[in-house]
Amino acid sequence: MGNVLISTSSFGKYDKAPLELLVEMNYKTTLNPYGREMSEGEIKKLLNGVDALIAGTEPLTSDVILNAKSLKVISRCGVGIDNIDLEAVKEKDIKLYRTPQGPSIAVAELTLGLILDSLRYISCLNRKIRSGGWEKKMGRLFTGKTVGIVGMGSIGKRLTLLLKPFNCRILARDHVPDIEFARENKVEYVGLNELLRDSDIVTLHLSLDNDSKGLFDMELFSQMKDESVFINTSRGMIVDEVALYEVLKNGKIGYACLDVYGNEPYKGRLKELENITLTCHIGSYAREARIEMEMQAVENLLKGLEGFNHEDTKSLRKESEGFVS
User: Fold this and answer.
1) In 3D, which of 146, 120, 163, 159 has the Cα closest to residue 225?
2) Cβ within 8 Å of residue 150, ≥6 positions away
3) Directed axis angle between helix 122-130 and helix 104-120, to 10°?
4) Same domain, yes or no, for 30 and 113?
5) Structural domain for 23, as ranges
C-alpha cells in the first residue's frame, strides 16, 4: 500500500469514482484538510511519507519537493505547472503529469460567457437594478467581431471552435503556431502588436513563465482598440493589475473580465470599477470538466507509479498525453 496526498480542496466532491479507483488499487489517500489552497509550510508538512501527490496550485517550491523524501509522482489536476519547481522535480527524478485536456472546454465556455457579458453589460446592469436603478446601456453585437487569442493551446483552440457560429475573425499569437489547425479553422497567426491593434476582444490563454510574467502592462494596453474588451482566464501574474486599473478608469479600453489574479483572494482596486467583471478563479469549475480532470489526474498518478492499465475503466487513457517529464 502506498500513500497518496490530494491537495486540491474539492477533490471527489461531485463524483467519488476517482477516489474509489485509488482505494481499489490499495492506496491510502489523504485529502486536503484545510478546504483551501495550502501554504508552502502546510504542503511541506503533509508530504512527509507520501509516495504520490495529486497537486493543485499550492507552492511546490524547491524546499517542499526536496524535503518530500518518498515522493515519486506529481499528478497536477489542471494545466499550469508554474507553481512547481521543475529543477527540483528533475533533480529528484520525480515523474510529473498534468491534465491539459480536462479543463479546456470549461475555460473556453467561461471565456465565451464573459465576452457576451461584457458586450451586453449583463453583470453591470444586474448590479444597477439590484441597487434600485433602471439605466439601459447600449451594447454591441458579438457577431462579426475580431477576436485576438493570445495562446493557441488546447483552450485557445477549443474557444476558436466555440466562436464559429459568431462568424468572428480570429487572430492568434503563439510561440508554436499550429498551421494545420489555423488553415482548417481560418485562424490568422499575427504578431502581438498587430493582434492588439486589430482585435475587438483580446483574450489570454497562455502559461506563466519568465516571458509572460507581467507581459500585459501599460505599453501593451495602450496598443489596444478604444472600447475593446480584455479577458484573462489564464494566470493572474501575466497582467499588471495597476496598469489595467488605469486604462479601465480612463476609458482607454472599454471593459475587462478577470478570473485570475496576482494574489488570491483578490482584494485590489479593480473592485471599485463598473466596467469590469470579476470571478473567483472558476475556469475549471464546471462539474463535468472537473470530474474529467480528477479522473485523468488519478489515472496519470497510477501510470506514473506502476504503469497502470485499467481496461475496465472506460475513462482510462491509453496514452499519457499529460506526461511532462
Assistant:
1) 146
2) 172, 173, 174, 192, 195, 202, 203, 204, 205, 206
3) 60
4) no
5) 3-102+286-306
User: Do 270 and 239 meet the contact criterion of CB atoms below 8 Å apart?
Assistant: no
Asked if residue 270 and residue 186 are part of one domain, the reply reads yes
264 as an active site residue: the answer is: yes
* Same domain? 64 vs 205: no
| Cα–Cα distance measured from residue 240 to residue 216, given in angstroms and rounded to the nearest whole number | 6
- The Cβ-side half-sphere exposure at 177, using a 13 Å CA radius, reads 12
C-alpha grid cell for residue 280?
473567483
Going along 36-194, which residue ranges are E strands? 52-55, 73-76, 95-97, 146-150, 169-173, 187-189
Catalytic residue among 281, 310, 317, 321: 281
pLDDT tens digit string along 269-313?
A: 999 999 999 999 999 899 999 999 999 999 999 999 987 554 534
Please classify residue 131 by burial: count the beta carbons closer than 10 Å to its beta carbon, then call 0-12 exposed, 13-18 middle and 19+ buried: exposed
CB burial readout 99-128, b (16+ within 10 A) else e: bbbbbbbbbbbbbbebbebbbbbebbbeeb
3-class SS of residue 95: strand
Q: Which entry of 158, 205, 235, 290 is annotated as an active-site residue?
A: 235
**Are 173 and 271 in the same domain?**
yes
Distances (CA, A) of 174 to 139, 170, 190, 235, 256: 31, 13, 9, 16, 22
pLDDT tens across 243-268, in order?
A: 999 999 999 999 999 999 999 999 99
Cell numbers at 31, concatenated: 485529502
pLDDT tens for 155-196 read 999 999 999 999 999 999 999 999 999 999 999 999 999 999
Q: pTM, whole model, 2 decimals? A: 0.85
281 is catalytic: yes
Q: Which of 219, 264, 274, 288 is catalytic?
A: 264
Residue written as grid cell 493543485: 56
DSSP letter string over 172-202?
Answer: EE-SS--HHHHHHHTEEE--HHHHHHH-SEE
The closest of 264, 259, 236 to 82, measured between CA atoms, is: 236
